[in-house]
Amino acid sequence: MPASIFTDKSKKPDIKDMQNALGKAIILWSEIAEYVFKKYPDAKDEWAFPGINFGWNYRIRDARRVIIYMMPGDKFFRVSFIFGIKATEEAMICKISKEIKDLISSAKVYAEGRGFRIDVTQKKIMKDIKKLIDIKLLN
């Protein structure tokens, strides 16, 4: 299964596509994007198509790295982070759910850090996502 519901390289998703795919989850999508831009006003956003196995994904980045990846699904979406050593250590001691800490600690380690994905299906996870954004921006 691709990471994104949008797998046609020739058609970058627009707002109507996003509303149809995400349904009510578009509110959470917008909340996350707005949170990043509020915390880091100089951030840039972009759509990318890294390949058919991943489909279209949305990225918000600073000058040197991606802060958060967002992949649209069917009535939900995934957020992905890559955390280096310092960010990982901070995440493991902060107040986020045990499930997310387990995801982070079990994530495969690459040269650029640990990459992990979180499915966003309900508002209750938003506090943890925002905490992870804060950690990413500080590290």
Give a structural overview:
The protein is of the alpha+beta class and 139 residues long. The protein has a single domain, classed as Aspartate Aminotransferase, domain 1. Helices cover 39% and strands 24% of the residues. Strands 1-2-3-4-6-5 form a six-stranded antiparallel sheet. Helix 2 packs parallel to helix 5 (126-138).
Lay out the secondary structure.
Elements: H1 15-22, H2 25-39, E1 44-48, E2 57-61, E3 66-72, E4 77-83, H3 85-93, H4 98-106, E5 109-110, E6 113-120, H5 126-138
Antiparallel strand pairs: 1-2, 2-3, 3-4, 4-6, 5-6
Helix pairs in contact: 2-5
Q: Distance between the terminal alpha carbons, to the nearest Å?
A: 31 Å
CATH topology term:
Aspartate Aminotransferase, domain 1
Poorly predicted regions are none
Strand content: 15-25%
CATH class: Alpha Beta
Major sheet description: 6 strands, antiparallel
| Number of helical regions | 5
Shape: globular
What is the correct CATH architecture?
Alpha-Beta Complex
Count of structural domains: 1
- Averaged pLDDT, please? 94
Q: Order of strands across the biggest sheet?
A: 1-2-3-4-6-5
Series of secondary-structure elements, N-terminal to C-terminal? HHEEEEHHEEH
Would you report the number of β strands?
Answer: 6
Output the structural class: alpha+beta
Question: Notable features of this structure?
Answer:
Aspartate Aminotransferase, domain 1, 139 residues, alpha+beta, single chain
In brief:
With 139 residues, this protein is an alpha+beta fold. The chain is 39% helix and 24% strand. A six-stranded antiparallel sheet has the order 1-2-3-4-6-5.
